[in-house]
Amino acid sequence: MKHPNTYKKLRAFTLSETLIALSISSFVIVLVVSSYLIISKQFNNYKKTSNQINKVFNFISVLENDLNKYPIYEIHERTLFLESFGHKLSYMFEPTQIIRTIDQIPDTILQNSSGIDFNYETIAGDQTLLDIRLYLKHDTITLKLIEFNNSSLNPDNYWD
To answer: Which of 76, 82, 86, 110 would disulfide-bridge 70, Cβ 3.0–4.6 Å?
Structure first.
């Protein structure tokens, strides 16, 4: 006589199979999270650099606009003085920021750069060469401006 099987055999994973699956899924999760953190960090660095470059180009645009409106009447050390029709404008090139002052109202136009150099020299008696170097984290932007006859400037922007 056959004994009826009182216990039904259940199909299931063994303990070792479960541990292997758990370790593989944990490894995949660690890879995904670490990849996300690396990509997030790179994106934030790109965003900071992009913002800084946009600020530099904004500064260049404002400076070129001002130099086309206001002729240079004096350059003293690290300060550029412009004047036209009673309006006085100055740019102070500090080591880490540029302060633009128009009619005695200051405006910080560029700050938090790695460094700023401002040099000038007189060429051929009536021409002035302005050399502005902006040192960023990974790049250097050089802005060279030549003033003709104290009236307008011919800008030449380029990356070093």
So the answer is: 82
